[in-house]
């Protein structure tokens, strides 16, 4: 393992350890044994085959979104709009599936349209960033509210299901639903697509291609990249658009694999959770896959912990917030620890 990967591993482990230490303090203050709390989180996530599958189900959209965010973060384009891109991609994929009806081509076309939807929505802040120099953090974040509220309006009025009369779409046709791989579970084909197709492809793109190298160079020093003949604005634009496309894909896989309808609550914040995962995984696809399962386990296991120990389930958001802070501070903490010769970098 080279030094940069070793430092990345140290940063991730340090962030997780500090997060659990601080969380433990708050649990103790609340008269709860932290070891028992973490035990119930583990049991709730991996206690049996069904719980393991549910953890993988939860990890799937998070993984796909995080891989897209890793591409943009690699070149220092901070896409905070994955949540909105997920909604647009899922909505467009659902509309396409319903319009096409039962057909062999329904799923692949709807799948492609979800990619296009997420990419088009991301292309707006991408254009503002690459051509106008407008800060993408502000534009991507604000566009979340536009997309989510627009989708909620569509589901409440023009696309409201005539069957249920709830603010949700019609059920997508069976030909658009991802097949279940293990009977009587929710182990659908989307999990395999995410972990055994999307993950290797993104890993190859980021680690083995010229485009992946350009992402890294632009992220390290845009001026050096420009001097080397790299079209920096093009790379920034493509990074954000690809990131949005993957977020849109994650949204439709959630519809086709789990929900079967587009709902205004399709995502419990996967787009924001993806930011935590990408940072924790150090923008490395392998690290991101492990971090996705880790966070999914905490999300799923916290419900068991909450039920058994009478703790608020909001502890998940608390843990994610701490992770972000410690990941961002991990470089400075590592330097301090290295100066004190407590660890050799």
- In DSSP terms (H or I, runs of 4 or more residues), the helix count works out at 13
Q: Helical content, roughly?
A: over 70%
CATH topology: ABC transporter involved in vitamin B12 uptake, BtuC
Helix/strand-derived category reads mainly alpha
Give an overview of the whole structure.
The protein is mainly α and 345 residues long. It has one domain: Orthogonal Bundle (ABC transporter involved in vitamin B12 uptake, BtuC). 75% of the residues lie in helices and 0% in strands. It has helices spanning 3-29, 34-46, 49-74, 82-100, 106-132, 136-156, 189-208, 210-220, 222-227, 232-259, 270-280, 285-309, 315-339. Helix 3 packs across helix 8 (210-220). The protein starts with a helix and ends in a 6-residue tail after the last helix. The model has no long low-confidence stretch (mean pLDDT 93).
Give a concise summary.
The protein is built from 13 helices and no strands.
Map the helices and strands:
Layout lengths: L2 H27 L4 H13 L2 H26 L7 H19 L5 H27 L3 H21 L32 H20 L1 H11 L1 H6 L4 H28 L10 H11 L4 H25 L5 H25 L6
Helix pairs in contact: 1-13, 2-3, 2-12, 3-7, 3-8, 3-10, 3-11, 3-12, 4-5, 4-6, 4-10, 4-11, 5-6, 5-10, 7-8, 8-10, 11-12, 11-13
Task: Identify the notable features of this structure and list them briefly.
345 residues; single chain
């Amino acid at each position: 393992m080279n030094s940069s990967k070793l430092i990345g591993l140290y940063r991730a482990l340090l962030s997780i350890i500090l997060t659990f230490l601080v969380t433990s303090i708050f649990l103790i203050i609340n008269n709860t044994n932290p070891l028992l709390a973490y035990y119930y989180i583990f049991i709730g996530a991996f206690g049996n085959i069904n719980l393991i599958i549910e953890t993988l189900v939860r990890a799937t959209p998070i993984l796909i979104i995080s891989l897209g965010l890793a591409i943009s973060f690699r070149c220092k384009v901070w896409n905070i709009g994955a949540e909105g891109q997920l909604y647009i991609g899922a909505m467009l994929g659902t509309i396409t599936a319903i319009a096409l009806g039962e057909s062999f081509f329904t799923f692949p076309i709807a799948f492609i349209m979800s990619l296009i939807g997420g990419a088009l929505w991301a292309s707006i802040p991408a254009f503002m960033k690459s051509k106008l120099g407008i800060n993408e953090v502000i534009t991507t974040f604000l566009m979340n509210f536009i997309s989510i509220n627009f989708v909620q309006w569509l589901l409440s009025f023009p696309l409201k299901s005539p069957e249920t009369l709830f603010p949700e779409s019609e059920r997508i046709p069976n030909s658009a639903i991802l097949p279940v791989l293990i009977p009587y579970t929710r182990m659908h084909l989307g999990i395999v697509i995410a972990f055994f197709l999307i993950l290797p492809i993104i890993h190859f793109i980021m680690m083995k291609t010229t485009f992946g190298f350009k992402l890294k160079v632009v992220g390290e020093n845009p001026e050096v990249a420009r001097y080397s003949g790299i079209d920096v604005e093009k790379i920034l634009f493509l990074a954000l658009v690809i990131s949005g496309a993957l977020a849109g894909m994650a949204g439709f896989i959630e519809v086709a694999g789990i929900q079967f309808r587009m709902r205004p609550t399709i995502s419990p914040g996967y787009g924001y959770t993806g930011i935590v995962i990408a940072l924790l995984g150090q923008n490395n696809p392998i690290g991101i896959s492990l971090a996705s399962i880790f966070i999914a386990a905490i999300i799923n296991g916290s419900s068991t912990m909450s039920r058994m120990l009478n703790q608020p389930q909001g502890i998940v958001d608390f843990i994610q917030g701490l992770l972000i802070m410690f990941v961002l501070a991990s470089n400075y903490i590592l330097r301090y620890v290295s100066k004190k010769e407590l660890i050799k970098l």
